[in-house]
Amino acid sequence: MNNLSTSVAYFTMEAGITPEFKNYSGGLGILSGDHVKQATQSGANTSFFSILWKKGYNLQKVTDDGTVIDVPQENELWRSYVTDTYLSFYLPIGDTQILIRIWKFNGHNLYLLDADLEENGELRKLTYNLYGGAFKDSEFERIGQEMILGIGGMIASELVLDHKPKYYHFNDGHAIFAVHKIINDYMNIYDLHLTFNDAWQKAKQVVRFTTHTNVKDGNELHSIDDLIKYKANYNLSFNQLQLLGNEDGSSNYGMTVSALHCSGKVNAVSVLHAEEANKLWKDVSNRPVIFPITNGVHRDTWQKEDIYSSYLLSNVSLLMSQHKAYKLQLVNYIKEKKGISLNPDCLIIGFARRATGYKRWNLIFKNPLSIEDLIKRYNIQLVFAGKSHQKDENGKKYLSIIHNFAKQYPDNVLFLEGYDIDMAKYLTSGCDIWLNTPLVPMEACGTSGMKAALNGVLNFSSSDGWWAEACDHEKNGWVIHSHTELSGEERDKKDAESLIYYLYTSIIPTFFDKDKWAKMMLESIKTAEYFTTERMLNDYYEKLYTE
Ligand SMILES: *Cc1c(COP(=O)(O)O)cnc(C)c1O
What we know:
Elements: E1 8-11, H1 27-42, E2 46-51, E3 59-62, E4 68-71, E5 82-93, E6 96-105, E7 110-114, H2 138-160, E8 167-171, H3 178-188, H4 196-203, E9 207-210, E10 221-223, H5 224-229, H6 238-245, E11 252-254, H7 255-262, E12 265-268, H8 271-280, E13 290-292, H9 299-302, H10 305-313, H11 316-338, E14 348-352, H12 368-378, E15 381-385, H13 393-408, E16 413-416, H14 421-430, E17 433-436, H15 447-454, E18 458-462, H16 465-470, E19 477-480, H17 488-511, H18 514-528, H19 533-544
Parallel strand pairs: 1-2, 1-8, 2-7, 8-9, 9-12, 12-13, 14-15, 14-17, 15-16, 17-18, 18-19
Antiparallel strand pairs: 3-4, 5-6, 6-7, 10-11
Helix pairs in contact: 1-19, 2-3, 3-4, 10-11, 11-14, 11-18, 14-15, 15-18
The chain binds pyridoxal-5'-phosphate (PLP).
Residues 26-27, 30, 353, 419-421, 424, 445-449, 451 line the site of pyridoxal-5'-phosphate.
């Protein structure tokens, strides 16, 4: 029905395609990876541009006393996933010409930029660490990386494609320096010789943007002086960068503000997220209204085939036995990793996501007595996994808190280190319940819940992100009531009461009523059919890649 032939160049800082190719840190990268796989499968004319991260993203370990430490890792198997295009180009960063090589990921139209070449000296490290860590001057490192992705990605698209894409789509603001080149080229390169203002307006015809972060602090700022010093301005003047990157004539350049100023169309990643994004950015003038295209997940990556067949046949006994088999796989996986034997006949609740403030990792422990009772009476088992950003001390605190509960209840509470695609597959098919407790409305989307839902793992979550669109309480999962009229600790306490209440009154009773549980599993899988990258990609072509 949809025509996927419009040519699009898609820019993303990370891409998680397979567990072994460690080119991602978390949600943003997995989403891009799923998008890449779907584009190939659907035959969409989208080409993807990203960076080849030689060291990927840090591993995180929690020591015995609960201290969180970041451990560097190598993306050691990268060579077996990519083919050399033999194309390369120079990119000026500051006073140095950096040589960038272009690799193609095998089997997909994903092009990866690589600065790790001897002639680049120390600057070869710019493409070592996703989100930094190789340079003392982290601002230089960040701007350099964003220049490679944005400006480098534009140059790469000219080298690898035999045509000009109709749209440039930026997955979050990291690549937005690309628009400096787009505007400059309209002013200086083509016969158009447009004024800056006309070139800026014309750029909007080709630039599309997906916003992810609804936390203002999560939206990056750079000093315009730095951008000029490192040549991220691509010939644009201080004043021109001011016009793109802010509105108050300050000397800062906001990546998201610039993206909003330069895009003809902008989407957010769920319905609620779009509402919130429009509120957050309401003071940014001359920006398009942000509309939702809810994320999806790649079905063939995340849904177990036999589960899907049983769903199609509405064969509940088969579905239940298949679920049990995946639960046993998870139990074995945990036994191997941690030496802990979970009981597959008792409820397993999974919780895996980034450890950061609004996700409230500790919400389920707000009533320690109830948790103790639930453990004693029903032997419920809680499995946690995820990483925090290196500099997010609050997030690291959550990991320490979970670590302490795990010490207290070693057979019932556990934390798995090294959350990655592989582990996510075990968890989102082997748990019974998928828990999410964000502070509504802070969640952007929450794609792991879709992976769980596709496998009949029932979501139990605050009504936020995708779940606000999908949930049908006690039919396809459960909603944790959000006391939005309260704030702070008071609100957390009330939300936590709701969480515990539904565990006692609905989730555990249903767990012992296998027929009812199986029906809910079928409903869950049915609901998730909408939340796939197939639908997402079609939506992009229908709603974003149009005039
Ligand atoms: C799906 C996935 C994520 C993103 O999950 P959210 O629910 O969107 O936070 C992060 N990391 C891994 C390894 C995943 O598989």
